[in-house]
Amino acid sequence: MQEHAQAIREWFVRRLAEADILDGSGCDALLSLPLQARRIEARTDIVGGTDPRGAHLILSGIAYRYEFLPDGVRRIVALYFPGDLCFSRLPIPTASQGTLEALCEVTVADLPNRTLRSLTEAHPATERALWWHSSVELEITRQWLVLAGRLADQRIAHLICEILARIGAVGTGRTDTLPNHFRQTVIADITAISIVHVSRVLQALRASGLIALKRGVVTVQDHAGLAALADFDPGYLHLPGSKALPRSGRAARTDAAAVASLLRGGRSGSTRQPSAPEQPLPASAR
Fold first, then answer.
1. Kind of pairing between the strands at 217-220 and 211-214
2. Final residue of a domain: which of 86, 113, 147?
């Protein structure tokens, strides 16, 4: 476990280095922070440990932040994978902080507020790097808000691409299959789409050959086609080695319009197959 925790911490520091803010002493200080590992059962609040105001480095498993709407509907507003740092309380003034919860069994390293304060006072660059990390989380949230104006199949395709990109970057899971815990209810709570419509979209994606479904688990069969449908560009994730795609790179992928036509048949959410091409009229009828 110690070796795994150290590997995740090294990946976290490598991700912070993407901001070009950290100096050598800041990196060394982050790598030498004492880790207080804590195991959390699935569907259990993460806030706790020695300091509920501190932060939590995800070592294994997946966590999320959610809020309830006035009508009681749950909305998941953030996802956290191994190597992500999540704060019990967001470092921004807001009326609602949401609730941190484990999607599956999760192991976190608690970083008490006093530890972070001592770190940032001794190494000011680390404070700027942590603020950069928080801004990346807000950028992902902004991306989700933008996607809310798109069609359901594009939103779900984009979510699948994002999850697999984030898991693949840290190397803690398969890069073609969603973790077992991302069932239709979770996808619905992230994308603000009804469970019934999530099911329809997944069936349409399967019929198109983009994904396979086995016992509710999604496996991607055509990465290029799914990315084209979603117009997925991983640049906003700011993962090590992940750069924004140039426009020419996007255009070179599978024709997104053709994929969308196959899925929707001209109507959002439709699984109807495209009609046969129109046949030319015989000469006598012209």
1. antiparallel
2. 147
